[in-house]
Each structure stands twice: as structure tokens, then as C-alpha cells.
Amino acid sequence: MKYEIGGAKLYLGNCVNALNVLNEESIDLIVTSPPYDKLRNYEKTCVWDFNVFRTSAQILTRLLKDAGVLVWIIGDSIVDGSESANSFRQALYFVNECDLKLWDTMIYRKINPTPSTRNGLCYQQCFEYMFVFCKGDRPATINILTEPRSNLCGDKRKFRMMKRQRTVNGNFDATHPYYVKEIVPRKNIWEYKVGLYNTTNDKEAFEHPAVMPEKLAEDHILSWSKEGDFVLDPFCGSGTVGKMAVRHGRKFIGIDVVLKYLEIAKTRIWAEYDNPKFL
Questions:
Q1: How far is 60 from 98, CA to CA, in rounded Å?
Q2: How far is CA 220 from CA 5, 72, 73, 223, 244, in A?
Q3: What's the 3-state SS for 256-278?
Q4: Which DSSP string corresponds to 64-115?
Q5: pLDDT tens for each residue of 102-115
Q6: 10/239 Cα distance (integer angstroms)
Q7: Cα distance between the two ends of the chain
Q8: HSE-CB of 228 using CA atoms within 13 angstroms
Q9: How many whole angstroms separate alpha carbon 177 and alpha carbon 159?
Q10: Which residues of 70-103 are buried (b: 16+ CB within 10 A; e: fewer)?
């Protein structure tokens, strides 16, 4: 089954089978969060283990254009009191077996996380990893998001510091004054509130058990792609990546194995085409 409107296509099916219908080196950006570590039920239809991951990883690598980017958002479950570390295992597989470059290791921090179920035995879990890979030497598109500097004081135009950096032998190099910029690149820990009216205003999205924050998807789409690029989410769930891709003039391909979730994604993505603000 396939839905199509404008620059968006949605496919129903197992990610491995559905990915094989796409052309190699046709995707500019992949933003996805796989069904890792069986932390969610997903209507009991999702089979996800390391063998499926390896097959998916190889196909995704072939689908990426040269200099394309893959954003892999993932966490770990607790097994017998220990974190599974599958996030690292998968990241190393992309680097060592798929020959992708680990461009950045980022953190998605939930400002209001679900309370821990480990009864005070460890610190409150509040983040997931966002591994940013690129195919080739560097991403084709890099739009680093910025933010106001938080520690400016006095006259911002005249504020300056003496800059010193350590050399390879541990000594400091020569000092020289420089003006502090008011706008600086964002740090690679991104923070978002989650839950209804934070993750999204679309109530129907919460029929899916793991909804990606719209702002998170938007920030990666703006960072690693440009208008007209092809964006893929092979585990598209409620369609958040597709919604934000279409909103910003990208073409989108989404895949999910559960019809119920694909229908939700269709509703949310199609609404973007009906909203004149985003045409």
C-alpha cells in the first residue's frame, strides 16, 4: 500500500522490504528513531533485533547520496540491572561496517522525563543519543543553528576577552583580544519538553506510543538539508519527520509496518498541504 500527495510518499510494510523499492543514492537525509530494545509494543507487529538492524543499516547506507546524512536517535533498555549498550553497538556498526563517518554525537534531553522505575538505584534517565553520520568526508548541507550567547555583560559591542588556548604540549599560546559574538552556534545537547502540547499539538499523534518532538525533527531537517531535498524516515510512526519535512519544502518518504500509524502520519502530513501558511 502506498499513499502519495505532493512531494510526500508513505509506504506500508516491513522497513527492509519497503526500502528495497527505493533507488540507491536517492536520499539526502534520513532522520529516524528505530524501535530499539523492544521498549514499546508497536501493536505486536514489529520484529527488531540486531540481524534486522544490520540489514536495515546496509540498505540505508546504499540509499544515502554521497555526502548524505543519517540521524539515528536511540536509547538503551535496562536488562538484568544493566543498560543494554545497543546504542553504541549500532553506532559502531555504522562506522566500522557501513563506512559512515560519525559526524557528531548529540544528546536529546527531555526536560520533563517520565519518572524512573528503578526505585532510586540510579540517576533519573532523561536523554537519548542522536548519532549524526555522513556518507563521505562531510555533509553536503551544514546549517548550524545558532542562539544568543548567555554570558554577555556590559556593552555587548565592546565586550572582549583575552583568548588563550593550550597547545599540544600543554602550554598556553600567546594571548590576544577578541570580541565576543552575541550569536553563537548551539551546543550539541538539545533540550525539549515532551508530552501533549509540547511534543506536538496533534492529539491523534499520541495513539502512537513513542512520538518524536516536532521541534527536534525540525531542527535536524533545517541543519542537514535544504529545500527540495529528499528526507526519509524508515520507521515513520505518527509522521513527525514527514510533517516537518513537508513544512520546510523537502520531499518526504515514510515507511511503517502498522497501518494504524501510517494513517495517523497521512493525516498529519496531508494537513500541511491544506494549510496555506506552509504552501
A1: 9
A2: 23, 11, 11, 5, 10
A3: ECCHHHHHHHHHHHHHHHHCHHH
A4: EEEEEEEEEEE---EETTEE--HHHHHHHHHHHTS--EEEEEEEEEESSPPP
A5: 999 999 999 988 77
A6: 9
A7: 26
A8: 1
A9: 10
A10: bbbbbbbebeeeeebebbeebbebbeeebebbeb
Q: Residue 116 carries which side chain, given as an amino acid letter?
A: S
Distant-in-sequence, close-in-space partners of 189: CB < 8 Å, separation ≥ 6: 106, 107, 109, 127
Give the pTM.
Answer: 0.88
Task: Specify the range with the lowest mean pLDDT, choosing from 22-31, 69-78, 153-162.
Answer: 153-162
CA 151 from centre of chain: 29
Length of the chain in terms of residues written: 279
Distance of CA 90 to the CA centre of its chain: 15
Over residues 70-113, the pLDDT tens digits come to 999 999 887 777 888 999 999 999 999 999 999 999 999 999 88
The x, y and z cell numbers of residue 272, run together, are: 500541511
Q: Which amino acid is at 149?
A: R
Instruction: For cell 563517518, name the residue.
Output: 101
